[in-house]
Amino acid sequence: MIRVVLPAHLRILAKVSGEVELEIAGPVTQRTILDALEARYPPLRGTLREYGTLRRRPFVRFFACEEDLSHESPDAPLPEAVASGKEPFLVVGAIAGG
Fold it and tell me: What is the pLDDT of residues 8-57, one digit of tens each?
């Protein structure tokens, strides 16, 4: 089971509380996690990735095992700790301002 932590506003949109657990068949990558997340929670479609290109939205960041994976290939395998469910995959809303 893959554990995913969403920011509060996306938990509200998906109508979940706490961590989300997903079953992923095959390799565990950003793409497979986000595909499963959007399939299970359709209101999240378009909030994490652009509709047409499926590119990460500018103010959304992905972390795992204390590393920022936001600029990594979406098809790169995630750390074993995430794939085994020991560590969560974190979705973080970035903040910008002056």
Answer: 999 999 999 999 999 998 999 999 999 999 999 999 999 999 998 999 99
Kindly write down the DSSP assignment for every residue of 19-56, as one continuous string: -EEE---S--BHHHHHHHHHHH-GGGTTTSB-TTT-PB
* Residue ranges of domains in the chain: 2-93
Q: Give the per-residue pLDDT at 94.
A: 77
Bridge partners of residue 75, in order along the sequence = none
**pLDDT tens-place string over residues 49-73:** 999 899 999 899 999 999 999 999 9
Other CB atoms within a 10 A radius of the CB of residue 33 amount to 24
Question: Regarding the domain with residue range 2-93, which homologous superfamily does it belong to in the CATH classification?
Answer: Beta-grasp domain (3.10.20.30)
DSSP one-letter code for 88 = P
CA atoms within 13 A on the CB side of 11: 14
